[in-house]
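Renewal narrative, Specific Aim 1. Our central claim is that a sequence can be written position by position from structural information alone. The example that follows is taken directly from our test logs and has not been curated for this report. It begins with the structure tokens describing the chain, in the order in which they were read.
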């Protein structure tokens, strides 16, 4: 009987919790600090569904296997924390009940023992699989914030615990939080962020020559150029394919070359540079007002060096890399708005292994001096695509930035996120960008695609909205360059340039961004019509009612942070 009562109480509690979440949507908390603090901050969402998140009630709600006496620690200021120690066979966890249709955001404060930094990951284990919501570099003597997120593919019980790649450290954890969101709540966060971040209110007022309001006038709005950069990669096939040109030029104002600007494409033979194709692509873009990202100057992956580079001794490698930088950066100076200077230098270290640990910092410094008006970018994959401990996880990315600063590069720097998604984890994407945003550097999505599969288009649509809604993302580039033999991972069209489902997703995104599908508005009795517009350059036309041929047009800009609602005045002689 007692078991039945307890079961009924648990179900009732869940129903009450769900009803409260629906009735009072929880605001997403984007806060994150990369500083290592002497005392952990309060848990986000007051811990969410975590029981006893600050350990104020000792071990209540936590399960300890092994020596329970070693599972609870207390700092000099009286702060309690929980300890996981493989050395002492004391492992802690908490039982959770997770739902398939929820999105979970996770955070905790972590510290390790024994003086060595160590990668620490949170682990969620369900009945079918284990995953990591996120990871952090734990340090001794101070607390680091771990932030992440996840979804589950099955409703039911799960375990939360922490683990490290270093078995010799103890893991301390405190201020642990797990907050569920419904799909509707998550979408409302996106919509509100886009409305506040990407758009502004604009009011149109029509009056006659005597200043009297004109009611029932039609207001038509045409976007001339969006402020938010959105583009896709192209290949050399665009140069002699009018159908490819028409498809691309009708959609995009930003591009990046898939391979044609890379070292191995230009200097296949030592000392023999062939810029013919790359030059032609730059001319094509310039003739049509298309802005270009530079990709890339150098690549730290040993597989993608020109063959003759791979065996050069250090002195010759340095000289060759300098010639490459001088050649390509001076040639296209003023023609590009970004440069990926050392591609994928978290995953790989070809130049570091040959020239020293500070090779990236040295090359970034040289790049900035060579082309000071073009922002140099880091560029990495699996930073926002895959959660957990990885070579390019958000903490490792932040660590690389700090290391380059320590090694002497203090010039401008951008964070490039390739965004090659094998699957979709929206809470982790958001949390990962929250972390990177704490660096206060520009963030671009540089190579967005989604792995082929039955949900490819749906995943692409949701990921694009998540990225566009994040305040720190300054631009999005697709990695969907057309090639007659197939695309890198994701095509937008077939070989006749008829849209695939992914292409329809992109067109719908562009349509929303440019207001292409918006219906004309009508002024009210005060001659006013108000709407919310994405930031950009526009032309507005006001036409008089009742078939009157009088109309008036003017261009205007909608820019961020204008303060009060902008009013566009039209005076029409009637």
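The sequence written for that structure reads:
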């Amino acid at each position: 009987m007692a078991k039945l009562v307890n079961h009924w109480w648990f179900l009732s509690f869940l129903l009450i919790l769900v009803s409260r979440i629906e009735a009072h949507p929880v605001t997403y908390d984007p806060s994150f600090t990369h500083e290592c603090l002497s005392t952990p901050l309060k848990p986000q969402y007051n811990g969410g569904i975590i029981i006893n998140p600050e350990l104020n009630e000792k071990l209540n709600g936590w399960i300890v296997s092994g020596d329970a006496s070693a599972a609870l620690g207390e700092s000099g200021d009286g702060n309690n924390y929980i300890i996981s120690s493989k050395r002492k066979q004391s492992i802690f966890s908490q039982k959770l009940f997770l739902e398939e249709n929820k999105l979970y955001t996770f955070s905790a404060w972590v510290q390790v023992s024994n003086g060595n930094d160590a990668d620490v990951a949170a682990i969620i284990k369900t009945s079918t699989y284990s995953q990591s919501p996120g990871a952090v570099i734990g340090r001794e003597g101070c607390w680091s914030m771990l932030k992440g997120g996840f979804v589950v593919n099955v409703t039911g019980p799960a375990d939360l615990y922490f683990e490290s790649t270093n078995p010799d450290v103890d893991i301390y954890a405190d201020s642990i939080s797990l907050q569920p969101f419904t799909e509707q709540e998550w979408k409302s966060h996106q919509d509100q962020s886009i409305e506040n971040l990407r758009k502004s209110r604009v009011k149109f007022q029509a009056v006659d020559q005597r200043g009297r309001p004109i009611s029932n006038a039609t207001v038509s709005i045409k976007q001339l150029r969006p402020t938010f950069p959105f583009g896709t990669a192209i290949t050399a096939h665009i140069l002699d394919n009018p159908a490819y040109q028409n498809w691309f030029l009708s959609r995009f104002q930003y591009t990046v070359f898939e391979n044609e600007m890379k070292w191995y494409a230009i200097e296949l033979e030592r000392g023999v540079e062939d810029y013919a194709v790359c030059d032609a692509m730059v001319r094509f873009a310039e003739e049509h007002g298309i802005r270009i990202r530079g990709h890339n100057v150098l690549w730290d992956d040993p597989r993608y060096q020109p063959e003759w580079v791979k065996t050069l001794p250090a002195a010759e490698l340095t000289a060759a890399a300098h010639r490459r930088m001088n050649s390509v950066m001076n040639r296209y100076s003023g023609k590009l708005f970004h440069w990926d200077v050392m591609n994928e230098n978290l995953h790989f270290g070809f130049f570091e292994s040959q020239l020293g640990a500070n090779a990236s910092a040295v090359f970034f410094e040289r790049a900035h001096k060579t082309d000071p008006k073009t922002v140099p970018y880091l560029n990495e994959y699996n930073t926002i695509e895959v959660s957990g401990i990885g070579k390019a996880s958000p903490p490792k990315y932040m660590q690389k930035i700090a290391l380059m600063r320590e090694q002497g590069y203090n010039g401008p720097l951008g964070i490039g996120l390739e965004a090659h998604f094998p699957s979709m984890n929206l809470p982790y994407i958001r949390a990962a960008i929250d972390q990177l945003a704490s660096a206060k550097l520009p963030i671009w999505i540089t190579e967005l695609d989604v792995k082929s599969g039955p949900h490819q288009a749906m995943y692409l649509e949701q990921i694009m909205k998540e990225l566009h809604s994040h305040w720190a993302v300054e631009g999005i580039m697709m990695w969907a360059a057309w090639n007659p033999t197939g695309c890198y991972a994701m095509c937008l069209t077939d070989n006749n340039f008829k849209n695939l489902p992914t292409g329809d997703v992109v067109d719908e995104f562009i349509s929303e961004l440019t207001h292409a599908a918006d219906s004309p508005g009508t002024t009210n009795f005060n001659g006013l019509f108000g709407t919310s517009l994405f930031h950009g350059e526009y032309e507005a036309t006001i036409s008089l009612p009742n078939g009157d041929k009088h109309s008036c047009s003017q261009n205007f800009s909608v820019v961020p942070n204008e303060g009060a609602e902008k009013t566009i005045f039209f005076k029409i002689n009637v």
